Amino acid sequence: MDPITNPYAPGAGQRPPELAGRDEQLRTFDVVLERIARGRSERSIVLTGLRGVGKTVLLNALRSSAVRADWGTGKLEARPDQRLRRPLAAAAHQAVRELGHPRPDDVDQVLGIIKSFALRDAPTAAKLRDRWQPGIDVPAVPGRADSGDIEIDLVELFTDIGGLAADVGKGVAFFIDEMQDLDAEDVSALCAACHEISQSGLPVIVVGAGLPHLPAVLSASKSYSERLFRYSRIDRLPRDAADRALVGPASEEGCEFTPEALDEMYAVTAGYPYFIQAYGKVVWDIAPTSPVTLQDIRVAVPEAEAELAVGFFGSRFERATPAEREYLRAMADAALFGPPNGPADGRGFDGAEPGSAAYAPGGELDAVPTAAVADVLGRKPQSLSPARDALIKKGLIYSSERGQIAFTVPHFGRYLRTQA
């Protein structure tokens, strides 16, 4: 079919043509916005899930909902090598500008506080030319949000921004992607600021997105974080939603799928939104005409998997050292064969031979014991701790619970076994 009219959009954070299966989260957020606008108390929100389930897409969709509600919004992406002040100051600057407050003097006052907050990022003895300038065209307001203690400063910043929003009957929402990568001190300050704002009833919320272990990161910072946030697990799509994500965009271009083709697409994608877009794009380019058949899918799958092997999987695998790659491969084997008391015949949990066409991705364990990984390598678990900790820091694996480890990327184990 014509590649120019290909409707599928596999990309990092790129919104698919059909945002299927996320209606509940969108409706819930609309209620949160309306309650806060009416002065009702509401918790901030945390979205968690594996890579490729559409957390960033959903985060952007929620931000669009806030913009439609005339809220001020700002977005940032956390990075392990960057503290919170600079990106949050930029997000706050944008949010205040979006509010459209009618009194310029009040706006300039808050912008000056944001500037003071941002400038505190530089060491006190730094020369003027070495200080980062936030691009806010008003004088800094000293004595507010510039103490140098990020927790105190963040509470004061959110309080002043919330007061400005309350003046015009609106709210402010900060959207933070990759939230698990925040510095531990910044996580603690963010929790404290959300707690203070919630108690004061000011219209400011934080919407964060991150990997499945993000709730544990927040809980380790502040014990009350379990009650501070509304947690939402973003997972792969159920069959009906996965079909809508695939069929909806195609039908607008006059294309259909046979029932057998849809069965095969769900089998190879397992309902993960990114895979639906990635496989769908290749299938569209390869299929000669509508309707798309089972044979079209089978022809397209190797090409789609080759592209994923280079971009989605390979780019992540290349970040690992040789020792870390050894650990990853051992995880893949442990996830397939299970713990020592798993299947005794050496087959996968679905009874299929590993690597065979009949092997179903769902037959893998979601998480494996660290002891099982050590058994695969014939090593003591303690000797593997450096590799495991480094992989966690790189965001390739996460600790789902004590003594358990899992990939942050779906189908990563299958990719590793294929490469091996």
From TrEMBL:
Provenance organism: Intrasporangium oryzae NRRL B-24470
All residue ranges annotated as the Cytochrome c domain in the record: 166-332
A molecular function GO annotation: metal ion binding
UniProt protein name: ATPase
PROSITE patterns: CYTC
Domain of life: Bacteria
Stored Pfam families: AAA_16 (PF13191)
Keywords: Heme, Iron, Metal-binding
InterPro entries in UniProt: AAA_16, Cyt_c-like_dom, P-loop_NTPase
Region of interest (Disordered), residue spans: 1-23
Keyword Iron included in the entry's annotation: yes
